[in-house]
Automatic annotation (TrEMBL):
It comes from the Bacteria. SMART domains: DnaJ (SM00271). Pfam families: DnaJ, DNAJ_related. This is DnaJ domain-containing protein. InterPro entries: DnaJ-related_N, DnaJ_domain, Hsp70_co-chaperone_J-domain, J_dom_sf. Residues 162-216 form the J domain. GO terms for molecular function: misfolded protein binding; protein-folding chaperone binding. Keywords: Chaperone. GO terms for biological process: ERAD pathway.
Length: 218
């Protein structure tokens, strides 16, 4: 790997609190758009540049080496989340220098998935981002704001009842139900999917903005 695992000494919140309060990584969906739009293999820093050009990646730390690490962490976190979301219908190969989306899942996908387990667990654990939980949440809120502007989401929060209806859920839905349905519907209606629909995707994103504060537990 190009990036060493960074020290977590700078954490100022208990690790359990970090895990419980993390938000959804909004880079998942623009990354899907980038990967769906091309059959080429990507490198992590090329994906970062592509998202920067779209106004969806920002400076994350005044120290260049820490900014580079945090940028890499966010991208790898989103890529591993997307890898799990797409399985078993598509295979997303996640290597720092060779990232590519395959429409046909390879026969040894389960083996490949298991081989990357330790690295995937590392990047899916927000404790390793090397910052306090409040900064992580503020950063993700900033990314969500940028993404809302990018895809043209209505900034007015949707009525909760309407949001649950969009998610095909009722008032008894648990945090896990809401989060699972969010990923399912966002993937189903993502405009770069074969059966996607941009208007439905925006509606799902707007519903998520209303419901997501209830669903911060993964």
């Amino acid at each position: 790997m190009l990036f060493e695992k960074h020290s977590t000494a700078a954490l100022t919140e208990p690790s359990s609190k970090m895990t419980a309060q993390k938000g959804d990584n909004p880079l998942i969906w623009p990354l899907l758009s980038v990967l769906q739009s091309s059959n080429q293999s990507w490198k992590v820093h090329h994906l970062a540049t592509e998202l920067q050009n779209k106004g969806l990646m920002h400076d994350l730390d005044p120290l260049p080496e820490k900014d580079l690490f945090k940028r890499n962490f966010l991208l790898m976190n989103a890529l591993y989340e997307l890898q799990d979301i797409l399985l078993p219908k598509q295979w997303l190969q996640v290597k720092s220098m060779e990232i590519q989306l395959f429409r046909i899942v390879p026969g040894n996908a389960d083996l490949l998935h298991r081989q990357d387990a330790a690295l995937r667990d590392y990047y899916l654990d927000w404790k390793n981002y090397d910052t306090c939980v409040n900064v992580v949440r503020e950063m993700l809120e900033s990314f969500w704001s940028s993404y809302q502007e990018y895809i043209g989401i209505n900034i007015q929060l949707m009525n909760k009842g309407h949001a649950l209806k969009v998610f095909e859920l009722d008032e008894t839905a648990s945090d896990r139900d809401i989060r699972r349905q969010w990923k399912k519907l966002a993937l189903k209606w993502h405009p770069d999917r074969d059966q996607g629909n941009a208007d439905r995707f925006k509606e799902v994103c707007e519903a998520w903005q209303t419901l997501r504060d209830k669903s911060l537990v993964a």
